[in-house]
Amino acid sequence: MVVQWTQVEREMAKQSENVLTKLNERGYQAYWVGGCVRDELLGRVVDDMDITTSASPQQVMELFDDCIPTGLQHGTVTVRSGGYYFEVTTFRTESEYQDNRRPATVQFVQDIKEDLERRDFTMNALAMDVTGTMVDPFGGQTDIKEERVRCVGSAMERFGEDALRMLRCVRFASVFNFKIVHNTWKGLVRQGDLLQHIAMERVRTEMVKMMSGPHPLRGLGLLDRSKALAHIKAPVSSARFNKTLLSNLEQLSGEHVLLRWSLLLIAGGYSKDEADVLLRQWTFSNEHRSRITGVLQVEQLVQASIQELEQKDITSLRTDWIVTVLTCGVQAADDWLRLQSLLPAGWRDQLDQAESQLVLVQEHAAEWSQSIPVHDLKELDITGEQVLQMVQRKGGPWLGQLMKHLLKETAIGNIANQHEALSAEVKRVVADDQA
């Protein structure tokens, strides 16, 4: 290989170089472009390698046997080489953006600098050929070295073309821990209302990337100062968030991004139901939404338990915790417990009695969770059908209530998970109901 990539899988680099070389041999210009060049300079792992070329989409398809016409209207053909996929896009300019996000017209050009001029930030307006020669007409390398996010040309124009670039700006500043230059920041603040045109799916994608990064608090601070999220389709007011509660957010690694979201929503004072509505609007998947809001549900149930007027003994607190685990699930309970060490003591601003009971729950919850022998109805050594046969009654809501009672009593440890013991409890409950 002519260029010694340090952040790319060796075979991927080799195959992408083969694509560039083949284009060059046919007389076309070809470059690696954008994120792969930027991340190589930053020392960040490169996952994909985009290519830009003077060849038209038709010429690219004629040159490579194994390719997919993924976006011909925008000049993009996906070329497969050695099992790797590379997006090869013709040099182009864009104009007349629709809805502050999509170019209405795309014109193919022959000058790489014209292509780079349409890109969002100088760090992404970088191209490199197979010899390692860099094309950097806007000072992207300098901005990377000096840790700056700067728009290519006029920030007002770039953000007006695609309003999502404002959130990308915040995301890059957050993930890379870069500063945003004054004119770019000024354009972001002034153009914030254009975010109302951006689909929430695109907003969510940027926010998840930011929250997964190493410096989410920096990103949240920039969003707070810019008030950007007040303008999106499902707006959020930064004023509702308790910044003190978020101070330990980064102690959770990016791998635990869903827990970071749970902590963020706790800091925003969201109930489980309110958070569920917001995350639906933000197009989170059912699985992720459930994981995030599960923590809030545990918080609500724990609060309901310890806020009751009477002082509860440790046995009662254990029973309430086990019911909470059965209601919310083991994952949600474990997630809630993990977050407790990251929240400052006394943040709930509650009475001393409630606070002391909460401390007891936090100290013993892991042990109580470990003691639970069953978590689901299907784990019981008796089925609903067997109960019906035993008592000679038709099914109905009573059966569901009885099975939940059996699960609770078995989970607490009041009844052994054995068919005889469960059958005896069924007979006792039915006899009491009939008395």
Characterization of this structure:
It is a single chain. This protein has 435 residues and is of the alpha+beta class. It contains 19 helices and eleven strands. A seven-stranded mixed beta sheet has the order 3-4-5-2-1-8-9. It is elongated. The mean pLDDT is 93.
List the main descriptive attributes of the protein structure presented here.
alpha+beta, 7-stranded mixed beta sheet, two-stranded antiparallel ribbon
Present the secondary structure layout:
Elements: H1 10-25, E1 30-33, H2 35-42, E2 51-53, H3 57-63, E3 67-71, E4 76-81, E5 84-90, E6 92-98, E7 102-108, H4 112-117, E8 127-128, E9 134-135, H5 140-145, E10 148-149, H6 155-161, H7 164-176, E11 179-180, H8 182-190, H9 200-212, H10 216-226, H11 257-267, H12 272-281, H13 286-306, H14 314-328, H15 330-340, H16 352-370, H17 384-391, H18 397-412, H19 419-434
Helix pairs in contact: 7-9, 7-10, 11-13, 12-13, 13-14, 13-15, 14-15, 14-16, 15-16
Task: Provide a quick synopsis of the model.
This protein is of the alpha+beta class and 435 residues long.
